[in-house]
Amino acid sequence: MKEGIEGAARLLGAARRAAALTGAGVSAESGVPTFRGEGGLWRRYRAEDLATPGAYARDPELVWEWYRHRRRLVAACEPNAAHLALARLERLLPSFTLITQNVDGLHARAGSRDPVELHGNLFRARCESDGETRTADGSEGDGIPRCRAGHPMRPDVVWFGEMLPEEALRRAHDAAVAADLFLVVGTSALVHPAATLPVLAQQSGARLVEINPEETGLSGYADISLRGKAAEILPALVELAFPEAREGGEG
Ligand code: OAD
């Protein structure tokens, strides 16, 4: 593990074009539930009832209720040391693209400037008729929100069976292909196409570093696997890679 983190820090310190893919595990220590592990959302709820176009067509009120419940849950959470370390990396590296599968908005709240949100954002609604989007400001009531033209709006998240937003996928793909170092943090790497990105990056010449307390389907491909919690490993890794940099002093 020691060589592991030191080796990873050397790669990070030398990286010119790095990228990271994050999943629910990066927010676990903020108190946001993951999907598949112990206490995971898909252990308690059926995705087919809540997170598919069919579920929304059958019962939009129920689906909105579920997303409002998740909004309230996340609104009560704070970004953790892993989110903050990733926001720091953006300022320390010549080029760094943060790609996330999370819809909780915690990367932006931690200071990441323009994370690529592959699966949308819990706090945004979208009109399927005219494309209007609206970000929640906390003043929303119950029921189904409507766009300015009066059409019902849906949560602006990607449901099972749906395509990913084109622009986000293009940015993620470009960053993966260009990367010399690719970090994979807190994802089971089971959901595609997100899980394809680390493999694509590696095939295009990037070194792959995984941070996860558990082994995943990607572990066999990773050049270095760091076993532990993101909020502990990431700050230590950034500190080792950039010992000279002080918080606030890297411009
Ligand atoms: P999962 O719940 O599938 O996986 C979470 C991963 O985080 C697991 O590999 C855990 O071992 C790891 N983990 C747990 N605690 C951790 C910690 N403190 N530090 C680091 N890692 C930790 O979540 P995702 O991989 O994000 O899709 O799931 C991918 C997609 O499936 C989600 O974006 C969501 C879901 O259905 C949509 O909503 C479209």
Describe this structure in words.
Helix content is 38%, strand content 17%. It is of the alpha/beta class and 251 residues long. Strand 2 (95-100), helix 8 and strand 3 form a beta-alpha-beta unit. Helix 1 (2-14) crosses helix 11. The chain binds 2'-O-acetyl adenosine-5-diphosphoribose. 2'-O-acetyl adenosine-5-diphosphoribose is lined by residues 23-25, 28-29, 34-37, 40, 101, 119, 158, 186-188, 190-191, 212-214, 216, 229-230.
What's the short version?
This protein is α/β, with parallel strands linked by helices and 251 residues long. It is 38% helix and 17% strand. A six-stranded parallel sheet has the order 3-2-1-7-8-9, with helices on both faces. It has a three-stranded antiparallel sheet with strand order 5-4-6, covered by helices on one side.
Shape: elongated
The proportion of residues forming helix, as a percent range, comes to 25-40%
Counted by DSSP, the helix tally is 11
Largest sheet: 6 strands, parallel
Low-pLDDT ranges:
none
Radius of gyration: 18 Å
Order of helices and strands: HEHHHHHHEHEEEEHEHEEH
Structural class: alpha/beta
Largest beta sheet: strand ordering: 3-2-1-7-8-9
- Overall strand count: 9
Q: Compounds present? A: 2'-O-acetyl adenosine-5-diphosphoribose
Mean pLDDT: 95
What separation lies between the terminal Cα atoms? 32 Å
Into which percentage range does the β-strand content fall? 15-25%
